[in-house]
Structures are given as structure tokens and as C-alpha cells.
Amino acid sequence: MAKVLYNLSIELYQWLIRLVSPFNQKAQLWLKGREGLFEKLEYQLTQARQKSQSPLSIAWFHCASLGEFEQGRPVIEAYKKEFPNHHILLTFFSPSGYEIRKNYEGADFICYLPADTPSNAKRFVELINPTVAFFVKYEFWYNYLNCLKQANIPSISFSTIFRENQVYFKSYGEFNRSILRLLTHIFVQNEKSASLLAGIQIQENVSIAGDTRFDRVAQIAQNKRVIPIAEQFKNDTQTLIVGSCWQQDFDVFCPFINSFEYPLKVIIAPHEIHPEEITQWQKQLKKPSIRYSEALNGKELNNAEVLFIDNIGMLSSLYQYADYAWIGGAYGKGLHNTLEAATFGLPIFFGNKVYTKFQEAMDLIAIGGAQVIDNTQTFESIFTSLYQDFNKRKEVSDKILTYVKSNIGSTQTIINFVKNLIQTTNK
């Protein structure tokens, strides 16, 4: 009965997507991206087989969206390095992942994941016939995993994290638990996740490997871009960067910026680029500000104390020019990526509403590397204390860097397992 309800829910979801698509661009992309998907993929595979003149070994990586892709990327690239003759198939569920990474050079084939109906799953798995399938973090699709299991194709979930309030650990969650049991191996982020799985008799195929995002941000830090405008703007002055800024974040730190009496440069990268929103924010600031695009076009930087980033793609490299980081989103939909700032050892601040489900945020709080901000007064007090005490700031930074360094290595753990698995299978 549960399986029937699951399949009905997949059909209902598709129906709802069609219903709202005339009014919702994301739904339109979801549908459009899946039109003729099997035919296009079959053509690409045929072309690749003809070119190689031998059977293809395909490693299938599935990510829900962009965040999961960044989590999976180190494993994709390490797998390709370990198995250079294998082809990479990358699938996405969400347009926000596919549309941004559809030209990613690290994969040989990139497409949307067809809806998890029994017929789609059977057709897809038979078409690609992967050597191994990877699912990043939370993607547990019953029909796909069942088809992989029946075909004796290993399926691996990694960077997975569980919480006790999830359906797998409820009395009514047996069907959901059965989905987890279809996986060949589950690499979880922490001991708590492993313990929760052991509580539902899933333990023999579970390993603690940490979070591959640490490997990803370490890569980003090593390959950071030089941004001359940011370097010129900083001008050897203590700098606060606000990453993925929402209105709720701005409302809290703006009064602080206006009243702070010591030398401070501020870089603000909005969560989404809306010129009219940046205009309104500039009007609320009492300190002189400039947009990155204006500086790029030759406008004088010297008098500016606030730099607005009105483009996308450079935030992760901008952190190298900061001394502190405010990470947005925690007053609303959820805290954004703190690890990109942490990899540079920056003391971190964020809102007090939605952050507890992010393990790295809780870890950073525990070591004193991150501070939860209730209001402007709280931020002013904590920030000023760090600003005025170099030794305290360095102590916090050292703790953060030690934490990040100690969590690097998840990718290699996964690759070692897969290497052994493939060698065993091929014997």
C-alpha cells in the first residue's frame, strides 16, 4: 500500500507542476528540461559508444540542486581522476542546479532526472547501465534505487546527515526505511546520523566519512581568484563581508554600520541581484558606498566604505579579503554557506532563526568560531570586542582553521571504498 501511495504522490507532483507551470518559471524549466530527455540521452550515449568503440563504464552522480552539486563535485572530480576511462553522468532534480551547471566540464553527460515512476526508473537504469550510482545527501528515490538493486548495480549515498525528526525514525516510516535499505552503502556526516540509523537496524553498510563540502571549500581556497577591485577597496583596513545578504540581515547590521566609529570596510553580496534593492540599501546607509560594476567602469573607490557586489560567481573568492563574515539567510529561509568563509578562518556571524539543522554551523558555534545574532546591539557588542582585540581575533581564527582542516578528507574515504568495490566486482 505504501508503495502505491508513493507512486501516486510522484504522479500528483508531476500534475501539480503542469498546473502551476503557466505561472511559475521554475516549473516551466522543470517540464521543458525533461521533454525528449530519453531520446536525447540515448543519442548522446550512442555517439559516445561509437567514438570509444567499446562498452561505456558510466558513473552516475545525482544531485537535487546546486548546493548538493557543490557537495558532490569533489567526489566527481576525484572519481574521474581515479577512473579516467569512465564517463560521468550528472543528473539534477531542480532547475536551480541544472540551469547553472548544465555546461559543467567535469561531466560527460548532464540532464534532469526523470520523475521517479516505475517505468521511468526502469528505462533510465537500463539505458545508462551505470557501473556505480551516487546520490548526494538526501536524494532517496524508491524506484531508482530498487531498479539499481535488482540490476546488482551498487548505489552509494554520501555526505548524508540524519535528524531524529525525519520520517525514517517515526513509527509510520517503515516504507521510507525500506528505501534506505536499498542502498549499497551510506556515508554519513557524523556519529549522530550513524547512531540513528543503527536504531532502525541499518548499520552494516554505514560509515562516518564527514562532509565533502570541506574538501570543496579547501579546493576553492587553494584556487581563489585575485579580485583587484576588492583588494584596492580593502586598502589594509579591517573588512566585514556580508555573504548572501537578505533584507532581514541588512535590517540588523545596517544600523551598526551607520554608527560604528572605527575604520571599517564592508563588502555586501546580496543573495539575489536586484538593482532597485541595492539602491534602497544605499539610501539607508550613512556611509559612502559604491557598486562593483561602477568601480569596474572606473568610478573612484577611495572614498567608499561599503562595496556592493552586483554580480554573481565571485563570493567564494571575496572572503580572502575579509577579516569577519556575516552569512545571510538565518533570519528567513535558512543559513547559507558558512564553510566558504570558515576556510579563510573568518569569525562568523548569522541570524538566530534557521541555523540548527546545519551541522557545521553548530560546530562553529561550539568552538567559538560563529556567533548567533539576535539584534543590532548584540552584534555591535560582539563585533567591537573582536575588532579591538587582535589576540582574541587570532585565537578564534586559529580554532576555525583547525576545525576546517580536521574535517578534510571525506572525498578520499569515499573514493577508496568505491575503488575497492569496483575492483571486487570486476574480479
UniProtKB/TrEMBL annotation:
The EC number(s) attached to this protein equal: 2.4.99.12
Catalytic reaction annotation: lipid IVA (E. coli) + CMP-3-deoxy-beta-D-manno-octulosonate = alpha-Kdo-(2->6)-lipid IVA (E. coli) + CMP + H(+)
Record domain 3-deoxy-D-manno-octulosonic-acid transferase N-terminal: where: 49-215
Q: Pfam families from the entry? A: Glycos_transf_N
InterPro entries, per the entry: Glycos_transf_N, Glycos_transf_N_sf, Kdotransferase
Q: In which pathway does it act?
A: Bacterial outer membrane biogenesis; LPS core biosynthesis
Q: Which residues cross the membrane?
A: none
Q: Which UniProt keywords apply?
A: Cell membrane, Lipopolysaccharide biosynthesis, Membrane, Transferase
Main localisation:
membrane
> Where located?
Cell membrane
Provide the function of this protein. Answer: Involved in lipopolysaccharide (LPS) biosynthesis. Catalyzes the transfer of 3-deoxy-D-manno-octulosonate (Kdo) residue(s) from CMP-Kdo to lipid IV(A), the tetraacyldisaccharide-1,4'-bisphosphate precursor of lipid A.
- Similarity field: Belongs to the glycosyltransferase group 1 family.
This chain belongs to the protein called: 3-deoxy-D-manno-octulosonic acid transferase
Which organism is this protein's natural source? Flectobacillus roseus
